[in-house]
Amino acid sequence: MADIAVGGPLPASGPLALASRRSPPRLRPGWPLSVIFLGFPLWWVTGLSTFIFLIMAVPMAVALRRRPVVRAPRGFALWLFFLVWMLIGGLTLFADAPYGVPGGELSRLLVFGYRCGWYLAITVVLLYVGNLTEEELPRARVIRLLGFMFVVTVVGGLVGILAPHLEFPSLLELVLPKSLTRNDLISSLIHPKAATLTTFLGYEESRPIAPFAYANSWGANLALYLPFFLLANTGRKPRWRRVLLVSGLLLSLFPVIYSLNRGLWAVLGLAAAYLTLRYVHKGNRWALRFAVGGAVALLLLVTGSPLKALFQQRLDTPHSNDRRGQLYVVTTESAAIGSPVVGFGSTRDLQGSFASVGGGERPGCKGCGVPPLGTQGSLWYLIFAHGFVGAACFLGFLVRRFATHWRDPDRVSIAGCCVLLSFAVFLLIYDLLDAPLYTVMIALALMWRRERSGTEVR
């Protein structure tokens, strides 16, 4: 073997010279998204399914930092103003809110920090996906990842139906101290469960939640992933993708009905109508035929199976309507009276309840317990936690982006606007400022890239 002087020049040729010219292996742009979505079943089992979004924001931010120029979509100033306003609202975290329980524990800081992390993560993913070029990260690749998540959500829903009592300690749960894992919020985030049991129909019924923490989260995520599943498996695609499309839609029907989720049912109906109208207006003759055929097949399947009785029972049992309505009124009044400009930074427990002077859930009176002020709908959280100014900035940014794309005939823009409409309905009834909003930001980024490049996804 030839001697090489330390610090001297390397040979001009040969294996060592070739190796020296090789650059270190680099991960393909967009790899954090693949880690999140392709590995999501694993993250659910390990208890990291919520935190993986926050963890992957770090390499995304580093990648943005290394870019010579970082662009932002039009209207982004509204979003930045919202983030600043949200941080200012942290100064009121321990202020007493009208109708709320006075005082507060230091754990309120932990929840505020957790939400700050989410707001940061969704901002980073918007800029990360939006700044990558089509050559670096094709939009079709991102669409397939989100379509894959629809399949994961459907499979999780089917597991919730077939094995409703399935639950087990996650790896994260085993290593964290018991003082943390006993916390209700942390436990719901790191403890894998297939379903949650409910009795408001008069008997025990399971509602699928896997691979998420709550039944409503499951429904919201399924609805927001659906347009991308359709986009990934329609158009000029191999035959196996069309088989996957039909199979996925049919199988999703069972967990959708068993979820007892009226909001999900309404949003899916809205999404179907919107997509049909947009494609018919675009001149797609098959869109109306597909919609009518799907509606007929759905009607026959539901009316000819036990799903019909379950569906009708849920419509006849609006158990939470009155309580939700009262909570919305009290939440808005509390924010308007106590802190209309910056809000209270986080939620507050309500004094008493709507069914009992003493308040609180107790045996024989589950309805006596009232959710905290600022819950049961992200719109009400925005108003209560960040004031009317913060809520206006948040909504203004989304409306600004929708107004930019709603007439765009591109398939990605149609799917993205469908996601925004669905999210707007969910804002009224669900708490979803986490994974669902992450999907919304990816949709905005994909539409924004279409706006800049003009390329279409076939």
TrEMBL record:
Keyword Transmembrane assigned to the entry: answer is: yes
**Keyword tags:** Membrane, Transmembrane, Transmembrane helix
Residues crossing the lipid bilayer are: 43-64, 76-97, 109-130, 142-163, 212-231, 243-258, 264-280, 287-307, 379-399, 411-429
The answer, when asked if Phosphoprotein is one of the entry's keywords, is no
Organism, scientific name:
Nonomuraea cavernae
This protein's name: O-antigen ligase domain-containing protein
